[in-house]
Amino acid sequence: MSELLGISKHESFARDVLKTKAYASARPGEALALVEIPRRRLGPHDILIDIHYCGVCHSDIHQSRDEWSGGIFPMVPGHEITGVVAGAGSAVTRFSLGDPVGVGCMVDACRECNPCLDGDEQYCERGPIFTYNSKDRNGAPTYGGYSGQIVVDEDFVLRIPRHLPLDRAAPLLCAGITTYSPLRHWHAGRGQNVAIIGFGGLGHMGVKFAKAMGAHVTVLSRSEQKAADAKKLGADQYFSLNDQSALQKRKNSFHLILNTISAPHDLNGYLDLLRFEGTMVVVGVPPEGSNLNHAKLILQRRNLSGSHIGGLVETQKMLDFCGQNDILSDIELIQIDTINDAYDRVLKGDVRYRFVIDCKPLRQ
Amino acid sequence: MSELLGISKHESFARDVLKTKAYASARPGEALALVEIPRRRLGPHDILIDIHYCGVCHSDIHQSRDEWSGGIFPMVPGHEITGVVAGAGSAVTRFSLGDPVGVGCMVDACRECNPCLDGDEQYCERGPIFTYNSKDRNGAPTYGGYSGQIVVDEDFVLRIPRHLPLDRAAPLLCAGITTYSPLRHWHAGRGQNVAIIGFGGLGHMGVKFAKAMGAHVTVLSRSEQKAADAKKLGADQYFSLNDQSALQKRKNSFHLILNTISAPHDLNGYLDLLRFEGTMVVVGVPPEGSNLNHAKLILQRRNLSGSHIGGLVETQKMLDFCGQNDILSDIELIQIDTINDAYDRVLKGDVRYRFVIDCKPLRQ
User: Fold this and answer.
1) Which residues is A26 bridged to in the sheet?
2) DSSP 8-class letter at B135
3) What are the start and end residues of each CATH 3.40.50.720 domain in chain B?
């Protein structure tokens, strides 16, 4: 076991601080390894959560390799957390011991700006406090869900419907809300032709949500091997992005396209698939950006928009919707000591469709 | 006087065909010169218009130089046409001899598709028939407004409010509707901070419209010399796009940005100026496209959209709005034999703010 990370910098938290095992990257790009980290003492509004599962998001890899720069190290990734309430502060009213709960990408926000007051904490004007790779209100680094326990203000804790298994529910906290929120915001539903571009961790959730909302769903994937899976999850149509004749036939077809691709791609070609006044929503960030031909927007009054996770109220609505419609992620459950191999497989697109870590060894 | 263009190809129109003087580019990039062109005999629904004035649009230059390829030559540019009704077909009911009228970018469309039925002929699924550099229903090339007369179906003829001078009204038919339509579509009005990027032929009309609609209007221009003009036309604020500190201060400021620039520009930097859920509408097409950083849309749920001129009903509404609010273009009136020099000056941005051709010599 390595040293207790960060304690020397945050002495006010050192006394009576909780300790938990975690997997951290000590420096940018360094393999993740077992460490012990502090969790703050329970404040009156705090919940202590025993973490059961944590999903592996592609952004965990970006950040642990500091590909977005400004990373705070050592870094404990993980923002698709499910578990059970193991303790609660004196003023907590909404949760009881043993409740199944979740934590997503945020653990706090300013709560005062217009987006926060409107329940759009993800667009907080001062920037939300993220679950990891962020600084909390006291300036201490936040550590994510690749760990045994976490302490979070109850306002940022979500309720998981009791009949949903916590392992398959974990990816709902990021991949789920990231696709649910734009589908709701841009009114996916009956009579709408919706395309999901990219069929990975995000895309496979997008298919399930769009179908449950009543839309006609088409999957466009770089892979030629996933058609059967897509149809099993509810897609009405599937075609490969390499099939130029299929793309040609579907020009001006879709009311809404949810573009989940984070790698470089042909944005202009995909915009051609939108019908008059249709909208493409991007949720991925190709590092070099995309070339945009303005005429693709002008000649059919098309819209190109972006969407970032979702607020707390909407995330709870998404979880309740999953409870009502039995929507879960398709996962591969892994042990934490295989996390570095899992990262390599994510980069190859070799996962159907989300890795979820069993955090039990980290609670012991 | 050169030969009568095109007659040999369209013999059915050769008998009793009208002839008019015009300025044409014989081949891509060739200087415009005097020619004689045919106009079709009046059909029952046609209007014969004596052209008084025609505005000079940057797209006239692109097309006469075939920069968008596929150009039809010889080409007579011009789609900002004002004049007076000089003849009418037997079934014409909406116009009388002597009425002041205008013709914009389109002279017909399929009239059957959904956009046409909704009054959005500019988005006609089969493509509208443009005023020049297009083929009419009989396959004959269309010739634009750098000419003495034109024959147009009455459904594509606009009424110019009688008290508006026809020279300053001409640019309303393209520069006017191109800026009016997106400002209306995206609800520019009281309580809205609207930015107009680019202060040329389009931008100066955008300022007048946005102000008349009640918005708080900021002009962002590459020029550092036009502040006084912008304020005279109604802008509340003006700053140079080279002033990085001014850009920095106005981040997250605007509900709506109308981006009129056709040259390469820093789209990502301008998107930062939009507030949460704000919209930028592009109406210009930089030839190489723009680099788009997806995060600029994602992190504030911003929208990027495009808009293309306007339909017939909306163009008439725009002209009526101009009549009610005394909105006209600021122009430099020129003689047709200086058109090639005028093109050079447009390319240098040396015009305040639109050249308009006096077409009288072409009617004689």
Assistant:
1) none
2) B
3) 175-306
Instruction: Tell me whether residues A299 and B308 touch, CB distance under 8 A.
Output: yes
B265 touches chain A (CB under 8 A): no
Q: Do A276 and B252 touch (CB under 8 A)?
A: no
The string of DSSP codes covering A158-176 is: EEPPTTS-HHHHGGGGTHH
Spatial CA neighbour of A338 closest among A354, A352, A353, A358: A358
Higher-confidence residue: B349 or A84? A84
Residue B68's pLDDT band, with cuts at 50, 70 and 90, is confident
Query: In this predicted structure, what is the pLDDT of residue B221?
Result: 95
Answer yes or no: do B291 and A294 touch at CB < 8 A: no
Q: Mutate which of B59, B262, B294, B296 to test chain A, going by most A C-beta atoms within 10 A? A: B294
CA distance A313 to chain B (A): 17
CB atoms within 10 A of CB B318: 26
Q: Is the pLDDT of residue B12 over 80?
A: no
The separation between the first and the last C-alpha atoms of chain B, rounded to the nearest angstrom, is 13
Multiple choice CATH, B3-174+330-363, 3.20.70.20, 3.30.365.10, 3.40.50.300, 3.90.180.10: 3.90.180.10
Whole-angstrom Cα distance, residue B66 to residue B321? 35
Asked if residues B145 and B152 have their Cβ atoms less than 8 Å apart, the reply is no
In 3D space, the residue among A226, A320, A303 whose CA is nearest the CA of residue A259 turns out to be: A303
Q: What phi and psi values does residue A130 have, to the nearest 5 degrees?
A: -80, 160
Q: What distance separates the 2 farthest-apart alpha carbons in chain A?
A: 66
CA distance A201 to A174: 10
**DSSP type of residue A297:** H
Backbone angles phi, psi at A212, to 5 degrees: -65, -25
HEC string for B55-84: ECCHHHHHHHCCCCCCCCCCECCCCCEEEE
- Note the pLDDT of residue B3: 38
The answer to whether the complex's ipTM is over 0.85 is yes
3-state SS assignment for residue A129: strand
B201-212 and B312-325 are packed helices; what angle lies between their axes, rounded to 10 degrees? 70
- pLDDT 10s digits, B253-276: 999 999 999 989 999 999 999 999
CA dihedral (B80, B59, B26, B32) positive or negative: positive
Q: Could you give the residue range(s) of every CATH 3.90.180.10 domain in chain A?
A: 3-174+330-363
* B236 DSSP 8-state letter: S
Candidates B77, B147, B56; CA nearest to B354 is: B56
pLDDT of residue A16: 53
**Angstrom distance (rounded) from CA A252 to CA A274:** 5
When pLDDT is averaged across residues A168-192 and rounded to a whole number, the result is 98
Alpha-carbon gap: A69 to the closest alpha carbon of chain B (Å): 14
Residue B307 touches chain A, beta carbons under 8 Å = yes
* Residue contact A285–B296, C-beta within 8 A: no
Nearest to B282 by CA among A289, A40, A295: A295
CATH T-level topology, domain B175-306: Rossmann fold (3.40.50)
Look-up of token digits 């734009």: A182
Distance CA B203, CA B218 (A): 11
Tell whether B298 lies on the interface with A, counting CB pairs under 8 A. yes
> Which 8-state DSSP code applies to residue A252?
T
- Average pLDDT of the residues of chain B: 94
Is pLDDT larger for residue A210 or for residue B4? A210
The lowest-confidence range among A3-7, A61-65, A93-97, B292-296 is A3-7
Q: pLDDT at residue B59 above 50?
A: yes
pLDDT of residue B224: 84
The residue type at A307: S
User: In percent, how much of chain B has pLDDT > 70?
Assistant: 96
